[in-house]
């Protein structure tokens, strides 16, 4: 047990980090391993791979993800801002490079191979973008002569432009929603609400009119008879078949027919084998992480930490909500992972990076130290 009297770097971290948040995140990671054991063997068998191929890779991705999460949670706000700036520039450049060098998969170019590893760089743009716009919004509240809000909007336009060209409207929607929430926190004028809402509506109409697969997904959602809704129908059926307590581990059937049962539809597999009760428990974990993070943000005296923790929590929670809503056929189908549960290396490590920053910025800090850090002063002890 670490004593409060210890003055080591680990003791300082242990007694200031939100341990309940850390425990909830660890519970999600454990659930991800269990659900991967349930959902991925049939997918591996269909591809002629070892039955535990995706389970092993899931754990292989989880190990560095835990390392990234813990390492980032030790960083200071200044180090987080600097690292986010570098991460954003590199990830945005790689995301743009996918347009020319990435392989086309289902009509989109989102992946690029670096040193033999497939990477989806847009996943790393998201948390870094949240940190940078939070920094700009915080500066706007302190210095009215700095065009921080305009710079934040310019960053949004740059990110959205690259994502739309891939095209990746799911990530575009996610980033835009989080940006609008943070912009609202800064006290934006109502005219900006109208402008951003109008631009979002216009963008949706243009996407519907010009991009066939977007139009097909929306039409299938509004009128299931207009196209193939096999995956969504099977996912919904799994909730009905599983009932409250599930069929039991290994007894599910949906994983044998769904091509993405280990990734986008792992929540449906969990519903069939473990029941709606377990799914509600998972949803409660996500809700706890988001609400507790928002509570920590509300109590923060530092504008940057308040904006950043709020943005990272909304990014995390909204992504989870979109995945679960797709599994329940509540919104049009969109390939988006369930944080720390779905299979995916880029998603896993980028989520760990974002949650690590959330933990770092929500750490308890004495008010005197916080004020000194924000003003650049160094506190020294007075002689007795």
UniProtKB/TrEMBL annotation:
<keyword id="KW-1133">Transmembrane helix</keyword>
<keyword id="KW-1003">Cell membrane</keyword>
<protein>
    <recommendedName>
        <fullName>Probable peptidoglycan glycosyltransferase FtsW</fullName>
        <ecNumber>2.4.99.28</ecNumber>
    </recommendedName>
</protein>
<dbReference type="GO" id="GO:0051301">
    <property type="term" value="P:cell division"/>
</dbReference>
<feature type="transmembrane region" description="Helical">
    <location>
        <begin position="265"/>
        <end position="291"/>
    </location>
</feature>
<dbReference type="GO" id="GO:0009252">
    <property type="term" value="P:peptidoglycan biosynthetic process"/>
</dbReference>
<dbReference type="GO" id="GO:0071555">
    <property type="term" value="P:cell wall organization"/>
</dbReference>
<keyword id="KW-0131">Cell cycle</keyword>
<keyword id="KW-0472">Membrane</keyword>
<dbReference type="GO" id="GO:0008360">
    <property type="term" value="P:regulation of cell shape"/>
</dbReference>
<dbReference type="GO" id="GO:0015648">
    <property type="term" value="F:lipid-linked peptidoglycan transporter activity"/>
</dbReference>
<dbReference type="Pfam" id="PF01098">
    <property type="entry name" value="FTSW_RODA_SPOVE"/>
</dbReference>
<dbReference type="InterPro" id="IPR013437">
    <property type="entry name" value="FtsW"/>
</dbReference>
<feature type="transmembrane region" description="Helical">
    <location>
        <begin position="59"/>
        <end position="76"/>
    </location>
</feature>
<feature type="transmembrane region" description="Helical">
    <location>
        <begin position="83"/>
        <end position="103"/>
    </location>
</feature>
<dbReference type="GO" id="GO:0032153">
    <property type="term" value="C:cell division site"/>
</dbReference>
<feature type="transmembrane region" description="Helical">
    <location>
        <begin position="340"/>
        <end position="361"/>
    </location>
</feature>
<keyword id="KW-0812">Transmembrane</keyword>
<feature type="transmembrane region" description="Helical">
    <location>
        <begin position="303"/>
        <end position="328"/>
    </location>
</feature>
<keyword id="KW-0133">Cell shape</keyword>
<keyword id="KW-0328">Glycosyltransferase</keyword>
<keyword id="KW-0573">Peptidoglycan synthesis</keyword>
<dbReference type="InterPro" id="IPR001182">
    <property type="entry name" value="FtsW/RodA"/>
</dbReference>
<dbReference type="GO" id="GO:0008955">
    <property type="term" value="F:peptidoglycan glycosyltransferase activity"/>
</dbReference>
<feature type="transmembrane region" description="Helical">
    <location>
        <begin position="20"/>
        <end position="39"/>
    </location>
</feature>
<feature type="transmembrane region" description="Helical">
    <location>
        <begin position="151"/>
        <end position="184"/>
    </location>
</feature>
<keyword id="KW-0808">Transferase</keyword>
<comment type="pathway">
    <text>Cell wall biogenesis; peptidoglycan biosynthesis.</text>
</comment>
<comment type="similarity">
    <text>Belongs to the SEDS family. FtsW subfamily.</text>
</comment>
<feature type="transmembrane region" description="Helical">
    <location>
        <begin position="191"/>
        <end position="211"/>
    </location>
</feature>
<dbReference type="GO" id="GO:0005886">
    <property type="term" value="C:plasma membrane"/>
</dbReference>
<keyword id="KW-0961">Cell wall biogenesis/degradation</keyword>
<keyword id="KW-0132">Cell division</keyword>
